[in-house]
Amino acid sequence: xxxxxxxxxxxxxxxxxxxxxxxxxxxxxxxxxxxxxxxxxxxxxxxxxxxxxxxxxxxxxxxxxxxxxxxxxxxxxxxxxxxxxxxxxxxxxxxxxxxxxxxxxxxxxxxxxxxxxxxxxxxxxxxxxxxxxxxxxxxxxxxxxxxxxxxxxxxxxxxxxxxxxxxxxxxxxxxxxxxxxxxxxxxxxxxxxxxxxxxxxxxxxxxxxxxxxxxxxxxxxxxxxxxxxxxxxxxxxxxxxxxxxxxxxxxxxxxxxxxxxxxxxxxxxxxxxxxxxxxxxxxxxxxxxxxxxxxxxxxxxxxxxxxxxxxxxxxxxxxxxxxxxxxxxxxxxxxxxxxxxxxxxxxxxxxxxxxxxxxxxxxxxxxxxxxxxxxxxxxxxxxxxxxxxxxxxxxxxxxxxxxxxxxxxxxxxxxxxxxxxxxxxxxxxxxxxxxxxxxxxxxxxxxxxxxxxxxxxxxxxxxxxxxxxxxxxxxxxxxxxxxxxxxxxxxxxxxxxxxxxxxxxxxxxxxxxxxxxxxxxxxxxxxxxxxxxxxxxxxxxxxxxxxxxxxxxxxxxxx
Length: 559
Prior knowledge:
Blueprint: H1 2-23, E1 33-37, E2 45-50, H2 57-65, H3 72-78, E3 93-98, E4 120-123, H4 130-137, H5 145-155, E5 170-173, H6 211-224, E6 228-230, E7 234-238, E8 243-248, E9 254-256, E10 262-266, H7 273-282, E11 286-290, H8 297-306, E12 311-315, E13 320-323, E14 327-330, E15 334-338, E16 348-353, H9 363-371, E17 375-380, E18 383-385, E19 398-399, H10 405-415, E20 421-429, H11 431-434, E21 438-448, E22 451-456, H12 462-470, E23 473-477, H13 484-494, E24 501-508, E25 517-526, E26 533-536, H14 542-552, E27 555-558
Parallel strand pairs: 10-11, 16-17, 19-27, 22-23, 26-27
Antiparallel strand pairs: 1-8, 2-3, 4-5, 6-9, 7-8, 9-10, 12-15, 13-14, 14-25, 15-16, 17-18, 20-21, 21-22, 24-25, 25-26
């Protein structure tokens, strides 16, 4: 009974494998992509998995099943209520198998009858393929193909890719398998030819791009998209019927995005159109980036995003305006956004490609951009870089909104570093000089150098003003209910302190024709001894204030 099962399985394998060989000569390439045929088994034990946000089916099976191979048809039979296996949703329940699967690539030893003949040599001809050699030279049965390919690789360590055989080179072949009731092939093998030093046909070999160099550019961007880049180990793709493809991710890295797209980076163009077609028939969410699109990290990244479901990548021809007042603009080189109307449409990532002498953004600027919804990725060469963290504490902002008259004047003067005295007595006539004493109580008295200033809400007689001025005391009248810019202008002009109003613009880097971030706003600018003071009449968040404090190196006052 058991022999009948294996005999039937052999028939199924023959029917499945021969068409595959016609389309792509064992391009299930050993070490990169190989086809694994499995026996159909009973459903066995199962368990339920609840889909989480960002899950895709291939990732679920890799995390939950490890290297265990699960055929596509088995997934379908266990989950008949899921119409499209490419689209799963958070909270959905998926039935997973809990069983061992038998791999017909690993048949029992009694089905692998090998002869004791020594290995032979074969000179590779033009247009030769490994599949032709397996079938015509070694007369290999379908179930013997994978073990035979492994043997050929072991016998020929100098040949990196069996799918590109250099004409004229000597290929060591394992002995033909001996089969009961089957006579050896009448076609004789080519005579053994021993290689002679330097006796080799030179062939042009294209050196593939430096994979890690390119992935170093791509990896941080994908990570910031909540995706995964797999560049090591095996990746299993179950297909229809009982076929499964195993990908060696060190040769063909795999990118999984949170929109369900899975993209294979085929650096060496190892995947034939037949293999891609087989995958596409089972999984519509798979995409492939060929080697021609992986010449550098930027081109490879564009290829990945182009094959995603929910993302677009565009070159930033104009700045992004994050806030209108103050106007804050950012200048990335490229932006990655979620498509309009899709889940996560608010996602936006800015790519900043730094020049050789260009420094990363300051910590305050990067922190502000991230909090404003722009994911920042700065790339120098092929690596993501990060500037220093913000070392400045959140600014202590003077808020003078709601103050009027003397209260506003006093707070403004203290903010400028002055020391006004409230309710100070000022003598106008004294007993010695005038024979009588007359004084007034000034709302505020301020000394600046050799001069005194009286800030007063009640109007003084002109005679008193002239007497005080003659003695070096200036009187600055202000309205009792005055507020805002009129009071500030009048007070500071009376104190001979320049107070220009204008639109001020700052950029990062400061001295560069290629800014990364600019901030423009209208304000009163006051300079009095210490650092400049910017007085603004609009509200802004603490994050913006921290950014401006870092850009301006100055204090900001609200009035």
